[in-house]
Design a protein that fits this description.
alpha/beta, 2 domains, TIM Barrel, globular, Immunoglobulin-like, 622 residues
């Protein structure tokens, strides 16, 4: 999600979900009814036979994502920098000296740099929206461009600043040839801001005080019709608390120009009812309770599945749309993709909350395959950067049962450390310890990557993080170009582990974090259980210290012990492993060997601020 021109007060402080006692084994195999998965207690553990027959997660979701804003990655064609428009930057949106305007990156540039992305071990590229945007919104100091892609006016074509639909097809074809999938960032919550109100006022008006009216003036509650099955009441422009005024009929498909397809209640306050009915930073909020909007959005994205061979969707602003929409929309898209031979089509949503009770219903009720794992991000930052308790980190995984449905589980969650909205992991590390040296920040960055790559979930590398990008904060301050920048605000941003500045290109495959991420990808490839093995919690210090778990191949029983230490000194922990009298050989972070006792107890020592991985020398006894 991207604000209209400046960051709104849209999110409350995330809260990590509560602890629940449940084994990763139960998560791996339990199946419950998807719309009834609201229980506060975990499902019962499966039988040993059922567990042995179940992989930890679906074969199609062992991904390593690379998330990129096309405008900020590589400029392969300078002729499209202005998107075919003429005039000043307020018309074209192009001004590479301003971080809020187009910098020149495009799909051709991204295509030319596929080997650089592949070199990280990437299996899936996730692009910020590439659909045609309103070039500029706002006035005066608030003016900003749609370089990020979230102000869509035409859902049927690539934004000319990025290239053409043909360029997109070429990118997808070339990525597939290199063994990488391509994911689109898509939006159903809103469009570009072209609907205003008469009179001109934007304060939110609640449903209780200002109900919707039928075209003959009778009040009704749209929520009664949101699940489908009942004919939605006929409405006109006088049915809304705010009278809509369309300032431009530039939207495609044409039904998006109908003002009765929008909520028309004013700007969201990012709390209560306005979360789903309010205009997100002024962007036109679609009335997603209407069946025409549900069907229209199905048809928009079915075309991209059918005609462009896209592999999946990341879905923006999910919690700002009513749950009934997701149940219908996701089910329809899944069925459509399967009908066109895409049974592995994967959709994950942005639910901006660190509370698993908030994020998980969009999987169990909304029928998405996963959500962006904000609970993991918050806990990982606290553990790595703020010296947080290992138990708080373990609490996130203890809630994994909440994501279990007939088609999904928490192993499909998409994990990340920072992003284009909140800011980069490097920025957080520097903010949390402003007196730390570059070497100390680099070590913490590496520990964060190890935590993400070695625990359950599909890890995301936010473009530039592999080069140590930092920045002054989130939003525009976290969107530096990979190519040489002309923006003054970016030129003094540190790049962790290097002496480079943003005045030069940053595609260095020898950069320390690039090399580390590639090595972690190689480690996972050589030891598949580190990617999709059952995660069984083994030990969590009550405070800073060791956090340890097993990753076990569900079929062979091959066990790996993974342990982290965020303390300033080496820490030793003793816990029960999966086998008695088993030798475990260090394969990452250590070359030592350790052996479990007759009671399967194992003792490991983890260096300060580091991670270690041990591999069992043999399979467990029958």
């Amino acid at each position: 999600m991207i604000p209209r021109w400046s960051a709104p007060p849209r999110h409350r402080t995330p809260q990590v979900g509560r602890v629940a006692a449940v084994t990763a084994a139960a998560l791996a195999a339990a199946v419950i009814q998807p719309l009834a998965a609201r229980a506060a207690t975990p499902p019962p553990p499966p039988s040993d036979a059922a567990l042995a027959a179940q992989p930890a997660r679906h074969d199609a979701t062992r991904e390593q994502f690379y998330f990129v804003l096309p405008d900020r990655f590589a400029n392969g064609d300078t002729s499209n920098d202005r998107g075919g428009l003429t005039g000043s930057r307020l018309t074209t949106g192009y001004d590479p000296t301003d971080k809020g305007f187009y910098q020149g990156g495009d799909l051709k540039g991204l295509t030319q740099r596929l080997d650089y992305i592949k070199g990280l071990g990437t299996t899936a590229i996730w692009m910020a929206p590439i659909f045609k945007n309103r070039p500029v919104q706002g006035t005066g100091a608030d003016a900003s461009a749609g370089y990020h892609g979230y102000w869509i006016t035409d859902f049927t074509q690539v934004d000319p600043h990025f290239g053409t639909n043909k360029d997109l097809k070429n990118l997808i074809s070339k990525a597939h040839a290199k063994g990488m999938k391509v994911y689109f960032d898509v939006i159903t919550n809103h469009t570009a801001d072209v609907v205003d109100y008469e009179p001109k006022s934007h304060d939110y008006l609640s449903k209780g005080a200002f109900p919707y009216l039928t075209e003959d003036g009778r009040p009704f509650d749209d929520a009664d019709y949101a699940a489908g099955g009942r004919k939605f009441p006929a409405v006109d422009k006088d049915s809304f608390p705010r009278t809509p005024k369309v300032t431009s009929r530039s939207k495609v498909p044409a039904w998006l120009n109908d003002p009765t397809m929008y909520s028309n209640r004013g700007d969201s306050t990012y709390s209560g009812e306005s979360t789903t009915y309010g205009d997100f930073s002024g962007l036109d909020d679609l009335w997603t309770e209407r069946p025409e909007v549900v069907k229209g959005m199905e048809q928009i994205y079915e075309r991209w599945v059918r005609d462009f061979d896209v592999d999946g969707f990341r879905i923006d602003t999910v919690k700002h749309v009513n749950m009934e929409f997701w149940t219908q929309w996701a089910t329809a898209l899944d069925a459509y993709a399967a009908k066109h031979g895409r049974e592995d089509f994967f959709m994950f949503g942005e639910v901006y909350s660190a509370d698993t009770s908030v994020t998980s219903p969009y999987v169990t009720q909304g029928r998405l395959d996963a959500t962006l794992d904000f609970p993991f991000q918050e806990a990982a930052r606290q553990y790595v950067s703020q010296g947080g308790s290992a138990k708080k980190l373990a609490a996130v995984f203890a809630d994994d049962y909440k994501y279990t449905t007939d088609k999904a589980n928490a192993y499909e969650q998409v994990t990340f450390l920072g992003n284009h909205d909140m800011g980069r992991i490097g920025t957080f590390l520097k903010q949390d310890d402003p007196n730390a040296t570059d070497a100390q920040i680099l070590a913490k960055d590496k520990l964060a990557n190890e935590l993400m790559f070695l625990s359950r979930g599909n890890p995301v590398v936010y473009y530039g993080d592999e080069q140590g990008f930092t920045g002054a904060g989130g939003d525009k301050d976290a969107r530096q170009p990979m190519f040489a920048s002309r923006t003054a605000d970016y030129l003094d941003d540190d790049q962790i582990g290097t002496d480079r500045t943003h005045a030069s290109d940053a595609y260095d495959t020898t950069a320390p974090l690039y090399r580390q991420i590639r090595a972690l990808a190689d480690l996972r490839k050589a030891n598949p259980a580190l990617t999709d093995g059952v995660q069984t919690e083994r030990y969590a210090a009550d405070g800073p210290g060791v956090y340890a778990f097993s990753r076990t191949d569900a079929k062979s029983g091959q066990e790996y012990i993974v342990a982290f230490n965020n303390a300033a000194r080496a820490q030793t922990a003793t816990f029960t492993a999966g086998s008695a009298h088993m030798r475990y050989d260090g394969i990452h972070g250590t070359t030592q060997r350790v052996t479990s006792g007759a009671d399967a107890r194992l003792t490991v020592t983890v260096p300060a601020g580091s991670a270690v991985v041990y591999k069992a020398a043999a399979r467990p006894a029958a």
